[in-house]
Specification:
734 residues; 18 strands; five-stranded antiparallel beta sheet; alpha+beta
Amino acid sequence: MPSAPLYKVPAGSELVLDHVRWRVIGKDADSYAVESIDNGECCSLSFERVDTALAANDAQLITPTALELHKELLAYTGGIENTAQLPDQERRDIRARTGLAEAMLELEEEGQKLTQRYLNRRDVRARLKSSACSLANDPHLFHGVYIGSASSPHSLPNGRSLQEMYRRYIKFDRNPVVLLRKHHAKGPQGSSFSRLTKLQERFIEYVFNIMVEEHQTKLSKTYEWSVAVWDKDPDMILKNFVAPSLTTVRARYNASSLVTREAGRNGIKYARNKFGAGSTDVRALKYGQRVATDQVYLSIFTNDQGNVDFRPLAKEDIDTELEENEICRLWLHVMFDVATRMPLAWVLTETADSDAQRQLLRMATSDKKREKLRYGCVKDPAPAVGLSLVQSDNGTATRNAKIYQSELGIGSSIMMGRTYHSSDNPFVESAIGTLQWEVLNFLPGYTGSRPGELSAYDGKKEATLTKDNLMGIITRYFVDEYPFRKHSGTGMYGAMPVQKLDEAIEIYGGIDAPDPIARRLHLGEKDTVTTSSEGVRVYGIWYNSTELQRFAAGVSKNVTVCLDPDDLREVTIFSQDTKVVMTAQLRMTVFADMTLAEAINLQRQTAERNPEKRLMYEQHLKDERARRAKESGLFLDPNDPDAYVNIEKLRKQSEQLDNVEYIPMPRSQPTVSPASVLGPPRRENSAPVKYQPAETEVSPETDKITDVLPTSVSAENLSEKPAPMFAPIRKSKL
């Protein structure tokens, strides 16, 4: 049995083996069919020979992609493949431009979007020059080089030129030769209209250059003004220039590429979406194998009453939720199965964020019988399915870590599309267009597919649909109409989506069932709560189980509860104290058939129902508590001074407890000998003083006793009879 080749050698590749250039034209059972590029000789090369030569680096394989890129490189550079073919000055210029391109690559890796306006900023241009010098390790990198325009060759190009330089550099795999100045390619490069002179060809290009601007000027006026400009040019007068006729210019303009004209007049995004190459590949065969999601800002206003009302809005209330009757436009998030084109999920939200995308994933992996009964659908919606591959655009609602974690957690692979490339995700784009023209266009509040399309119809004024009404209309369309329409998409062959669903189930033997535990873990809500004898309470809802009570064992423990917002019957519980994954059941059976949003809304409405009675009951409760407090005798009247006696007494007592006895310990006062402590020191040259008792005088003015102390005392009399410190009290002082 022949062995399969080791290396992939696609047809059309160029194989250089033993210095002979071969082109692979086919593949046999055990060899390649090749043709010599030099002389056209044909032969076959075995798989083993080619694999051995490629492994030993004795052969060179040029794939068709690399070959086409090489041809494009030669066409752009005019046959120059390497910078060694250029003069020294041009190589220095290319070296400086390469430094700028590598500096822009660093900015893009940092997360910066290299727009023309951003590259025109002064600080960004200064950083580009500094980074280029650092990368080249040459502070004089830009000395004497020509990197700008003809008017200012030594300065940095503008933002548009820098952006084009960087894109060209990346396109050709960072080949510096594409950064050369194409002096040989300036001006018109030939024309099929040989009867026109070079000046006339240049004039037509001049008119075309104005016509492809976004101003969308008229050809006749553009032609007239262009002739006036060229006729006033002295150089053109000297060369005897004669402008071609308007008919010739219009014929040349109509014969030019429509894609080029639309790209210039309406923008490259419009041209890409309208003329971008589509795909005829059958990208999925099994139901749930590949799903596509998208978001669209609906061109319809919703309101409860249809009246345009105004209310003052403070700065801090800008991001608050919409009022009940507030006019708004909604985002529609949709998901379709690629194999069968069945609508899997659809969600209406005020904003396009990750929470809406997670809600979309939950709806696709759950039963939609609730929506069927709520909105009165006749047929059954698409069954729940496990998602293998989720394809999304590059919007902020899908390009974030939260969504990536959720999709990988439920076992799905992630595939992101390119920005502004509708051809990458045509399965949802076409369905959204069908929804607009078949459903939204006939509803009140529709505003048209573009601004100003309905000039005589005011969508805001005619908005009478509520969010729930619009959700019901879209639900009935996706359940009862869209699956039963003939579909002409690739791989459908005119069959209905329900027919393709039945066929996929029959061929592949069923549908991959979603995992409810994975839904709770990766698409649900998580909260950390404490266990009790009643179980755990999450969002005001109680859950309990025998397994949980055995784990708690009467002790309050912290656990993490994972809840599915669309199915409140069970929760998954984790704890750091055990390796066992626990499950608890809903104890409040009134919430068994509700979603989390409906349960929270029910609790809120119950608590806020009859606000007048609620205020009256709250005031009654306050009065009863005040009356019971007064009757207890413990709570005195706040205006009574006796209510504050105890606290004042305690404050004074606490102040006394805070006092500390003062002990004087001076060191600078005069001292005496220890023997003279009991008496005053002796004075050797002092005269004896006789002791005289103190006299007491009574002041007639104040009728108070005044003590008259002796002027001097003898030491002997002091030792025999000490003088009294105070005079005797003879009259009461009261």
